[in-house]
Design goal:
It holds the Pfam family Trehalase. Residues 1-21 are annotated as: Disordered. Residues 149-176 form a coiled coil. The protein is mainly α and 516 residues long. It has a domain at 203-255. It is built from 19 helices and 11 strands. The strands form 5 sheets. The chain has a 3-stranded antiparallel β-sheet. Strand 8 (319-320) and strand 9 (325-326) form a beta hairpin.
Length: 516
């Protein structure tokens, strides 16, 4: 058992945190181009938060692993914050992006080494840094993380050391999480899904899962546990995206059926991973392996067009295996391919972007004050309306930004969404917690600055990926962004303090802001 003393020892702050001079005392170079002094200072405080979110796992965990639930890794880690006292897999992509902006290359290298060690041990990157997470993963962002690092450092020696493990993680998804589907012409495509074939409640949410399962006949309970764990592997825990109820997305958590769904974003991400691996092998001079992964990327790109793309609606959709058809519901994950650049091979890319923008407008999701909603379903789940999540805002904003050279409206829409997201983070600080300057883990798209809600847990402080997205947007658009409406540059304020990301407000507090 972990007593309070050992827990405190494991969770101690990082005295020797890599890059400390850059993030504790100095202003990162990219903040110098932020024109609004208040946003510049705010960004500096955000940057300084990394030290508070940093942890070094005690060597006691390595020496006596049976006494601890933590997974030992040799290098410092960044935890999300709040109730989350261990590191998580896909969260780290947005954290690493911001750490690199702050020239904290060695910190990032250490984090990547940690993930590689986990691939060596488990054959994949687990959901998070606890032993009970080792039977499931999360969206596979390790290869894109390494690309971020390589873009900043071109560390070919490090790449050569880890390339085999990057391939091993890719093959985990190809071999252990794949199924085959046929397109209309009868051609077979290999696609991936989230699928954790292990019964029993989630250890971290044992009571919630057990109580939920009691509503089902005994013979159906184990499958529910599989579905709940598969939903956790997706990172979207939970959403109507995973509900199947008489061929609809209505229902409750009893209707979660993740293993019957083939997700757009997972397959888009794996297409991107294959392309990056091809590029990595070119850097290392291994042209045969580069060609192998280019061919795989091309096949997956074709799959995005043949299996997921809906030309009538102008978007990609998840697939319901059992219904043998597309799930035609709005989820922000539908447009993940504009970020991964895996559009498919049918028609010019400008035509695709044009259709995607029309799809967004048709679904009326660009009208909200605080970002684009995760879905249009009012289910009470975290990954549904009215919540907006930082990583999804990043994907749509940066996807449109990268398409700016091929479509005239993409960049202006990207900036508009970035402006909304930065301002809602700013307003959250101004309106509610000026002394601690919070951002939200998630936000209510209908009310400027109001954190979102729903799901299994309450207000959280921290959140690393929200910090990371805010800093990236200040880097991309800081020369134009302002903290307030009307284009006026907000004055500097002495009341800016350490940024703490606040996510879920109790309903009583939310009602003060007129939340529906």
């Amino acid at each position: 058992m972990e007593d309070s003393q050992t827990r405190r020892r494991q969770l101690r702050g990082l005295d020797g945190f890599h890059g400390r001079p850059q993030h504790s005392d100095c202003s990162p170079e990219f903040l110098k181009k932020v024109v609004d002094p208040a946003l510049e200072e705010w960004g500096l405080k955000l940057n300084g938060l990394w030290k508070q979110l940093g942890r070094k796992i005690s060597e006691d965990v390595q020496l006596e692993p049976d006494r601890y639930s933590q997974i030992y890794v040799p290098n410092p880690v960044i935890v999300p914050g709040g109730r989350f006292r261990e590191f998580y897999y896909w969260d780290s992509y947005w954290t690493i992006d911001a750490l690199l902006l702050s020239q904290m290359n060695e910190t990032v290298k250490g984090m990547l080494e940690n993930f590689v060690e986990m691939v060596k041990e488990y054959g994949m990157v687990p959901n998070g840094g606890r032993i009970y997470y080792t039977r499931r993963s999360q969206p596979p962002y390790l290869i894109p993380m390494v690309k971020l690092y390589m873009d900043h450092t071109n560390d070919l020696e490090f790449l050569a050391q880890i390339i085999d493990k990057l391939e091993e993680e890719f093959l985990f998804w190809e071999n252990d999480r794949s199924v085959e589907l046929q397109d209309r012409s009868g051609k077979t495509h290999t696609v991936a899904q989230y699928r954790v074939n292990i019964g029993g409640p989630r250890p971290e949410s044992y009571r919630e899962d057990y109580n939920l399962a009691q509503q089902l006949p005994t013979e159906e309970q184990e499958d529910l546990y599989v579905q709940m764990k598969s939903g956790a592997e997706s990172g979207w825990d939970y959403s109507t995206r995973w509900f199947i109820n008489n061929n609809t997305n209505k229902g409750t958590l009893l209707n979660v059926n993740v293993t019957s769904i083939v997700p757009v974003d997972l397959n888009s991400l794996l297409c991107m991973n294959a392309r990056i691996l091809s590029q990595f092998y070119i850097k290392l001079g291994n042209y045969s392996m580069s060609k192998l992964y280019k061919d795989i990327a091309d096949q997956k790109n074709e799959t995005m067009a043949k299996i997921f793309w809906d030309d009538t609606d102008g978007t990609w959709y998840d697939i319901d295996i059992n219904a043998d058809g597309k799930r035609r519901h709005f989820y922000l994950s539908n447009i993940h391919p504009i970020w991964s650049d895996c559009y498919g091979q049918e028609g010019p890319r400008a035509h695709t972007i044009e259709k995607v923008i029309k799809y967004l407008k048709k679904n009326d999701v660009l009208k909200y004050k605080s970002g684009v909603p995760t879905s249009l379903e009012k289910s009470g789940q975290q990954w549904d309306f009215p919540n907006a999540w930082a990583p999804l805002q990043h994907l749509i904003i940066m996807g449109l930004y990268e398409a700016r050279s091929i479509h005239h409206e993409a960049e202006s829409l990207s900036f508009s969404l970035a402006e909304k997201w930065i301002r809602t983070n700013w307003q959250s600080y101004q309106q509610m917690y000026a002394t601690v300057a919070p951002l939200g883990l998630i936000y209510n798209v209908s009310v400027m600055g109001l954190p979102g809600g729903g799901g299994e847990y309450d207000v959280q402080v921290g959140f690393g990926w929200s910090n990371g997205v805010a800093l990236r947007l200040l880097d991309v658009y800081g020369d134009r962004l302002t903290a307030t409406t009307g284009g006026a540059v907000a004055p500097r304020t002495a009341s800016l303090w350490i940024i703490l990301l606040i996510s879920f407000l109790p309903l009583g507090i939310r009602s003060l802001f007129g939340t529906p």
